């Protein structure tokens, strides 16, 4: 993985954690996700005239990815309703790299070497530690954990689908524009159907924040898709999950969630895992 690709994925990690924090901050999750999803659709539609049309081989992946992304949004909304940001976000993100490694080996024929495989496992252990710290003396909220894990399954699925699709598209920017345009209409349409005449009154107080979240979301995923055309899927997926460190910082500063020494140790495992994954360059 080149320094430029590494920098792009790390920037994507920061922007991704930021838009997720925005989605968590908006109390009514459907309102927040309708704004973010709908804003992403508008950005995608605005980009279409200036991007190349994806090649025919990319369209099955595009359609499948749009469906998986809708499921991802629904499950992420549920995760944020049920759990704290500092735990729901890391569980969802931390469960994905190992799944991506398995799926990439099966479908993209990208079998990791010993360093990369060890790095993915160590990173997952660190992310799990970040997620589960603070549960001592309390029973885990299995509904929240289950929703976050299911979110991680969708993350792994769309990571592999889009990794294959963007390579077949001939244009990473054209692929992301069409993906945003295709997936972005469903949640806003459901929101409008549910709230009808009262929709604007619910959207207006959060419009600016939600649209900022949409721009960050599109930027984050565009960077990842570009990176997937230049490096293997599993290391990118794992490196992208360094967003959990940003998420933990956001949780501590803006949501007043404790970080603590155990979480710092778990974060250290994550950094070690990233170093192992990048060992082979």
UniProtKB/TrEMBL annotation:
UniProt signal peptide: none
Keyword presence, Ubl conjugation: no
Keywords: Membrane, Transmembrane, Transmembrane helix
Any Pfam family matching the protein: EamA
Transmembrane segments: 58-76, 88-108, 114-135, 142-161, 173-193, 205-227, 233-255, 262-280
InterPro entries cross-referenced by the UniProt entry: EamA_dom, EmrE-like
Annotated EamA domain residues: 8-130, 144-277
Domain of life: Bacteria
Family under the similarity heading: Belongs to the EamA transporter family.
Protein name: EamA family transporter
């Amino acid at each position: 993985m080149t320094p430029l690709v590494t920098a792009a994925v790390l920037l994507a990690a920061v922007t991704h954690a930021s838009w997720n924090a925005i989605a968590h901050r908006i109390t009514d999750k459907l309102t927040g996700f309708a704004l973010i999803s709908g804003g992403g659709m508008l950005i995608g539609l605005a980009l279409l005239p200036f991007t190349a049309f994806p090649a025919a081989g990319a369209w099955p992946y595009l359609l499948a990815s749009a469906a998986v992304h809708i499921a991802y949004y629904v499950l992420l909304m549920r995760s944020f309703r049920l759990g704290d940001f500092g735990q729901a976000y890391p569980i969802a993100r931390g469960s994905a790299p190992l799944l991506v490694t398995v799926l990439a080996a099966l479908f993209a024929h990208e079998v990791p070497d010993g360093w990369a495989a060890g790095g993915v496992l160590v990173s997952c252990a660190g992310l799990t530690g970040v997620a589960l710290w603070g549960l001592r003396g309390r029973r885990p909220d299995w509904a929240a954990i289950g929703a976050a894990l299911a979110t991680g399954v969708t993350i792994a699925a769309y990571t592999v689908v889009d990794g294959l699709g963007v390579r077949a598209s001939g244009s990473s920017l054209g692929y992301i524009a069409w993906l945003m345009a295709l997936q972005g209409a469903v949640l806003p349409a459901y929101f409008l159907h549910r709230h009808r005449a009262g929709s604007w009154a619910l959207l207006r107080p959060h419009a600016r924040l939600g649209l900022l979240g949409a721009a960050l979301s599109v930027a984050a995923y565009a960077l990842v898709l570009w990176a997937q055309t230049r490096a293997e899927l599993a290391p990118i997926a794992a490196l992208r999950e360094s967003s959990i460190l940003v998420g933990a910082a956001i949780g501590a500063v803006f949501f007043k969630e404790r970080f603590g020494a155990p979480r710092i140790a778990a974060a250290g495992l994550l950094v070690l895992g990233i170093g192992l994954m990048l060992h082979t360059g």
